[in-house]
Amino acid sequence: MASGNKYDYIIVEGQDIVTVTLNRPEIHNPFDEKMISELTDFFKSVNQNNTARAVVITGAGKSFCAGADLNWMKRMGQYSHEENVYDATDLSRMFQALEDIEIPVIAKVNGAALGGGAGLACACDFVIASEKAKIGFSEVKLGLLPGVISPYVIDRVGAKRATQLFITGERLEAELARKLGLFDDVVEPDDLNGVVDRFIRQIMTGGPQAVKECKRLARTGAHMERGEFKKYCINAIAIIRASPEGKEGVTAFLEKREPKWRR
After folding, report:
1. Predicted pLDDT at 70
2. 3-state class (DSSP) for residue 127
3. Which residues does the annotation mark as catalytic?
4. Predicted confidence (pLDDT) per residue in 168-194, tens digit
5. Thinking of the domain 4-204, which architecture would CATH place it in?
């Protein structure tokens, strides 16, 4: 996995558990062309790391990600339609690279997650947030809309709820965000690291390949016709049962011992 020294705006640390920290704390870790490029490069590299079991995304300082960099927004306001399409496509590619990660991705939301930062959290498989965290889709307040991030928000809360959040642009406290499904868990700030670590340890008890296939299974089922998905499921379980990992897991259970991946 790439060293954090490779990047200017993000820090990458770890092997089994890879943490990427958005590292522009003085301006609340916003997106601009450079941040997007670095995150895209990192996300694309994850599937090449055979030791990685999970990815954690967090922000340095008080915020998770405050959305778009103000200077970037000012430049975008001067762009032509074609330039804006190109720019939005780059952002969409970053989110696609995140979506393509095969292992679990956890958002550790330490502070404000606004606009694109809220979308970044929603695009993760799990969102664990501090009680001090806030989340909101504030684009409408600027006469804009949450275009690129909207598929991930809709996946998380549904179309009707997403409509309400997008139209009001309301900034939500952590507990309300949890009730609406934007956050999966909300914990005291001092407990955030420990809760995420305990959650990761649960993920690590599962077979590495089985975890990847579970993620693929759920995502495939969300977009495949039901009859075809049933066929997919039959083939998926047949393959995993005959795999070395599947055989080891069943054998370890019958022999009342830990499977090799837990050692």
Report:
1. 83
2. strand
3. 139
4. 999 999 999 999 999 999 999 999 999
5. Alpha-Beta Complex (3.90)
